[in-house]
Specification:
This protein is mostly helical. Helices cover 68% and strands 2% of the residues. The chain has a two-stranded antiparallel ribbon with strand order 1-2.
Length: 383
């Protein structure tokens, strides 16, 4: 997030009564000051009212929408936008999505905030904001910026909850929130969200749902069935994840072992056991847990092979570590986590040139990866 106050980039002025905005005919209320976006290099001392453009006013209004939600003139500013740019929501949504894809997160967030300020009752915009923050958190987590990722995940949850509490209910809010909960291993909440989505769409015909809607219903039902069949919404399972994730590995391991007593064939549980043991440095025990996870269905999960590789590295079994990492890479060829670990494996073998290539590849996917950037800088200084 930007450290400076974005409202410092605007100033308020009285518009002259003879001011006529370009390409529009909306009526100016000269008793209300309008926010004007400062041009690059401009200051209030050299400001010339005759140089004001409609775009400067619109940009100023959007900044107010984004960062001054209690401004007393918001309704008036909205009326201006509606008259001058009636398609502004569509335009800004497309711009925000493009910025998100390009990982220009600060600008994307500013656009989404402006949209919400413009139309705070539009639940679809609330959901879009949740999805954006969810994606931003995921990007930061992949870059190793865990605290930032946690913060954005918390923000995303607030918007997901707002979207799910809307009336009338928006089915897609529950569908997307379900995947958010899955990401955080909150399987009980995920199941509830997907079941609500299915309930909201049960009476909708396939024709009205369309191909994408039919796929979403099938996917939601598949996930609900998987959670139910593997008993992943069990309280022991949820408690185990929360504790291991929060650094209480020993307590978490107690819960997951209790879960495994009644659910010995759930690969997610074996994975969690291995994850907790690996965090405690018990690499041999962790390795055995990950091997059990593979036996019960984790062979399509790149994280399992990645974690297993870390255990083999600790045992100095670099050949097995490489086999696991290559399997992980085959399943997730764009995973910066896996590529970074291939770099560290190359370093362990003394192959600095290969390590340099791996860390450079990580930065091609994620230029903000500080760990890869640091390792690459050290290697390039040595080579």
């Amino acid at each position: 997030m930007n450290s400076s106050n974005p409202l410092d980039s605007i100033y308020y002025i009285n518009i002259p009564s003879n001011f006529v905005p370009s390409n529009s005919a909306f009526k100016i209320d000269t008793t209300i000051k309008l926010p004007v976006q400062v041009k690059a290099g401009e200051s209030i001392e050299n400001f010339n009212p005759n140089d004001i453009s409609t775009e400067q006013i619109l940009a100023g209004i959007l900044t107010v929408f984004a960062y001054d939600k209690k401004n007393e003139h918001l309704d008036y500013y909205r009326s201006i936008i509606k008259n001058v740019r009636p398609d502004i929501k569509k335009e800004l949504c497309e711009a925000a999505i493009l910025k998100t894809k390009n990982e220009d997160f600060d600008l994307a967030e500013e656009i989404f905030l402006a949209l919400l300020g413009y139309d705070p009752e539009d639940v679809a915009l609330v959901l879009n904001m949740a999805l954006f923050l969810d994606q931003r958190a995921e990007s930061y987590r992949n870059s190793g910026l865990i605290e930032d990722a946690d913060a954005y995940d918390a923000d995303a949850l607030a918007y997901y909850e707002q979207a799910m509490n809307a009336e009338p209910p928006l089915a897609d809010a529950f569908f997307n929130a379900g995947f958010y909960y899955m990401k955080l291993k909150k399987f009980r909440e995920a199941k509830d969200a997907f079941e609500t989505y299915l309930a909201l769409t049960c009476d909708v015909s396939d024709e009205d749902l369309g191909e994408n809607g039919i796929y979403k219903k099938e996917r939601a039902q598949e996930i609900v069935s998987n959670i139910t069949n593997q008993n992943m919404d069990d309280r022991e399972f949820s408690a185990a994840y929360e504790m291991i994730n929060n650094g209480e590995e020993e307590k978490g391991l107690e819960h997951i072992r209790k879960f495994l007593q009644n659910n010995p064939k759930v690969w997610n549980a074996w994975f969690m056991l291995g994850w907790g043991l690996r965090k405690l440095g018990r690499f041999e025990d962790a390795k055995q847990a990950f091997l059990e996870a593979l036996k019960y269905g984790a062979d399509t999960n790149s994280d399992t092979y990645n974690e297993l590789a870390l255990c083999y590295v600790e045992e100095k079994n670099l050949d097995e570590a490489e086999k696991c990492l290559m399997k992980a890479f085959a399943l997730a060829p764009e995973s910066t986590k896996v590529i970074s670990n291939l770099g560290y494996l190359a370093l362990a073998r003394g192959n600095k040139e290969d390590a340099r290539k791996y860390f450079a590849t990580v930065l091609e996917y994620d230029s903000k990866d500080k760990i890869a950037a640091s390792e690459l800088a050290k290697l390039e200084a040595e080579l």
